[in-house]
């Protein structure tokens, strides 16, 4: 489900592109929504795709690096980090974001950034493309990766 102001997703031909969706496992309900949204766009556009699960968002970057080393044209990175009472949130969020940026630039290939950094679970439910959600960040991340792969 797209909210007001959200870009339209899909509606183009991405057949011939090999895409790896890399998804962390923390916060299962929100993650399931993000994965479903990304996979819907990849199916609709005809992209070849496979799903790789990693334990947490910290591991997204190294898995993205391996995907590009294996020939992926694009990666969609999905994770959910919810702020807690310690600085851990900041460390994992920064490490995952910086790592994915570096991997994308080193490979010269796009990473769709579907890492949600949240104050609470409700913010994730609002963005996960689930029934009642206002936005679908998994779909948006897949769409961004595909559209970028087509123009670089
Ligand atoms: C340890 C941890 C914590 C506290 N919170 C999250 C989170 O909200 N979201 C997430 O994706 N991962 C979390 N992790 C796990 C780390 O990303 C990582 O998997 C572990 O520190 C092991 O390297």
Automatic annotation (TrEMBL):
Residues of the active site: 88 (proton donor)
General function of this protein: Catalyzes the formation of 6,7-dimethyl-8-ribityllumazine by condensation of 5-amino-6-(D-ribitylamino)uracil with 3,4-dihydroxy-2-butanone 4-phosphate. This is the penultimate step in the biosynthesis of riboflavin.
Positions bound to 5-amino-6-(D-ribitylamino)uracil: 26, 57-59, 80-82, 113
Xref: Pfam families: DMRL_synthase (PF00885)
Superkingdom of origin organism: Bacteria
NCBIfam families for this protein: lumazine-synth
Residues binding (2S)-2-hydroxy-3-oxobutyl phosphate, per UniProt: 85-86, 127
Family: Belongs to the DMRL synthase family.
Matches recorded under PANTHER family: 6,7-DIMETHYL-8-RIBITYLLUMAZINE SYNTHASE (PTHR21058:SF0), 6,7-DIMETHYL-8-RIBITYLLUMAZINE SYNTHASE DMRL SYNTHASE LUMAZINE SYNTHASE (PTHR21058)
Keywords, ordered alphabetically: Riboflavin biosynthesis, Transferase
The name this protein goes by in its record: 6,7-dimethyl-8-ribityllumazine synthase
Organism field: Microbacterium capsulatum
One function term, GO molecular function aspect: 6,7-dimethyl-8-ribityllumazine synthase activity
This protein's encoding gene: ribH
Reaction(s) the record says it catalyses: (2S)-2-hydroxy-3-oxobutyl phosphate + 5-amino-6-(D-ribitylamino)uracil = 6,7-dimethyl-8-(1-D-ribityl)lumazine + phosphate + 2 H2O + H(+)
Pathway: Cofactor biosynthesis; riboflavin biosynthesis; riboflavin from 2-hydroxy-3-oxobutyl phosphate and 5-amino-6-(D-ribitylamino)uracil: step 1/2
HAMAP family named in the record: Lumazine_synth
